[in-house]
Amino acid sequence: MNKSPFLHKNISILIHILVWALMGAFLFLLGPLSWKTTLPEEFWWRQIIFMLALVCLFYFNKDYLVPKLLFNKKLSFFIITSVGLCLLIMFVIEYFENSIHLPELMHKAFHPDDEKPFVQKDEFINVFILLVLFLGLGISTSVAAVQKWQTDEALRRQLDQQRINSELSYLKAQINPHFFFNTLNNIYSLTNIDVERARIALHKLSRMMRYVLYETEKDQTLLSKEIGFIKDFIELMRLRISDKVQVQLDIQEKVEDRVIAPMLLLPFVENCFKHGISSKQESIINIAIKVVENTLILETTNKIIPTNPNSPESHHKGIGMTNTQRRLSLLYAQRHTLQIDSENPEKEYRVILKINLA
Questions:
Q1: Which Gene3D superfamilies match (predicted)?
Q2: pLDDT digits (tens, 9 = 90+) for 75-123
Q3: Same domain, 182 and 305
Q4: Is 254 helix (H, G, I), strand (E, B) or coil?
Q5: How many domains does the chain have?
Q6: Cα separation of 339 and 318, whole Å?
Q7: Which domain holds residue 299?
Q8: Which of 52, 74, 135, 291 has the most CB atoms in a 10 Å sphere around its CB?
Q9: What pTM was estimated for this model as a whole?
Q10: Residue 231: exposed, middle, or buried by beta-carbon count in 10 A (0-12, 13-18, 19+)?
Q11: Quick one: which of 271, 288, 284 has its CA closest to 354?
Q12: Domain ends where: 131, 155, 179?
C-alpha cells in the first residue's frame, strides 16, 4: 500500500499549522507581551477573533475568490469583493471591541493613574487591522497563483510525457517495418545468387530480430548492444553489395556501457547503403562510431547516387530519417546536434550526429 499521498497530505496540514502558529505569535502575541503591562482578558479574546478572521479570509480567498473570480478573468469583481470583505471584517472587529469596551479597558491598562474620563476617538478606518487583512489577502492570492502554476506545470509535463510516449511508439512502429522491408528484399535477392550466403544472412537477421523484439520494447538499451546491432546490419549489407562498393569502418571496439534509445543509429547507417551504392560505378561508404567522454559521435559519408524513380524505395525515401530526427528531438531535445550536408562539390551525403549520454 502506498502511503506517500497520506503522508504528503498530513505534512502539508502540519506545515499550514506551523506557519499560522508562527504568524499568529508574531502578529498577535509577541507584540502585546512586550508592552510590559497587564492586559485585560477581553484583549486576548479580540486577538483570537482577529486571528480566526484572518485565517478564514486567507482560505476563502485562496480556495474560492481567486479560482472563481481572478482565474476566470473577473478582475474588477475580485478586487471589489476582496476589499469589501476586508472592510466588513474590520467593521465587525471594531464593533466587537466597542461592545466589550476594549478601548476603555486598554486605556486603563496603560494609564492606571489617569483620573481623566476616557474619551473614545471616532475612527472610521482602523489602518492596522486593514493592513493585516490586506497582507493576508495578498499572501493567499500569491499562494493560490503558485499552486495553480504548479498544477498546470505538472499537468503539462504529464501530457508532454504521454505525447512523447505515443509519438515514440508510433515512430518505432514505422521505423521497424521499414527496416525489415528493405532487409528482406536484400535477402530475397541474395537467394537467387548464393544460397549459403542467404542462409548466413538469415541467421544474422534472426539475431537482429531478437534485438528489435526485446530491446525496442524498452525505452533504453545499452550502447554496446546498439553498436553490436549496427555491426550485424553492416555485415548483412556486405553480403549483398558488389566489389565496387568499399565500406570503411571506424567503430570503437570497447565502449563504456551507457544507455541510449534503441534503433536510433540504424536509419543513418541504413541510408548509406540505400542511397549510396551503385552497381555501375565505384562508391565508398564511411561509417565511424566512437564515444568521447560522455558524447556519442556518429559520422557517415556516402556518395549521392540517384534513385530509380520507378523503384519502391523512391516512394518511401526519407521515412526512416524523418522519423529518427523526430525521435532525437523528443528524446534528446537539448542534448544532441545533427549536421546533414548534402550540397557539396564532392556530391556526398555527410552526417555528423552527437548525443550527450551523460
A1: Histidine kinase-like ATPase, C-terminal domain (3.30.565.10)
A2: 888 889 888 999 998 888 888 888 887 777 766 766 666 666 665 666 6
A3: yes
A4: coil
A5: 2
A6: 16
A7: 163-356
A8: 291
A9: 0.55
A10: middle
A11: 288
A12: 155
